[in-house]
């Protein structure tokens, strides 16, 4: 009898009823951010006398990528995303904008199921300031710098440090602080 009892316990473990369900190690990651900061790239003057600055670190972004849960270290998550970051002005007669393609690679530690702290590398590619014909367009070299994030559930606070260099070799701080949003599919 003891042999049959042991055999029945093994069968239950494999049936999935009592076994703990685990999320797959690789998940789809979607996210975004609202960021402020950096040096002024341009200042737009309006006919009513108002002005608006466009700053290098400022913008709203959306991103997609993946999250990998390291099998031997379950609290460690590696994340990578590619996105689009954009800021525009209130001009009615022109579409003045600063655009870039951010690539983020981070290592994240899950202190709890809901609290995540991460650090890694942020890279911005295709950095363009477009005046829509009202002035000179400006291109910037690709840039990279460290990024840090602390998040609770899917909402976080991120800081990125980097500099942009334009086509005339002028350098602008693109340091940014912002609120991030992220979710994995399937969820943890």
TrEMBL record:
Name of this chain's protein: Outer membrane protein beta-barrel domain-containing protein
Organism encoding this protein: Hymenobacter sedentarius
Region Disordered: start-end pairs: 1-22
């Amino acid at each position: 009898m003891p042999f049959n009892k042991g055999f029945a316990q093994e069968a239950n473990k494999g049936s999935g009823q009592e076994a703990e369900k685990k999320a797959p190690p690789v998940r789809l990651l979607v996210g975004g951010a609202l960021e402020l900061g950096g040096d002024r790239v341009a200042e737009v003057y309006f006919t009513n006398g108002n002005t608006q600055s466009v700053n290098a670190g400022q913008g709203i972004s959306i991103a997609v990528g993946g999250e990998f849960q390291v099998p031997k270290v379950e609290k460690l998550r590696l994340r990578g995303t590619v996105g689009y970051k954009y800021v525009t002005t209130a001009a009615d007669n022109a579409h003045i904008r600063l655009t870039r393609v951010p690539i983020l690679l981070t290592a994240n530690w899950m202190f709890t199921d809901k609290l995540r702290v991460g650090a890694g590398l942020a890279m911005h590619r295709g950095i363009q300031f477009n005046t829509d014909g009202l002035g000179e367009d400006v291109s910037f070299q690709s840039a990279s710098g460290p990024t840090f994030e602390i998040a609770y559930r899917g909402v976080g606070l991120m800081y990125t440090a980097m500099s942009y260099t334009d086509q005339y070799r002028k350098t602008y701080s693109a340091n940014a602080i912002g609120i991030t949003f992220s979710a994995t599919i399937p969820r943890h």
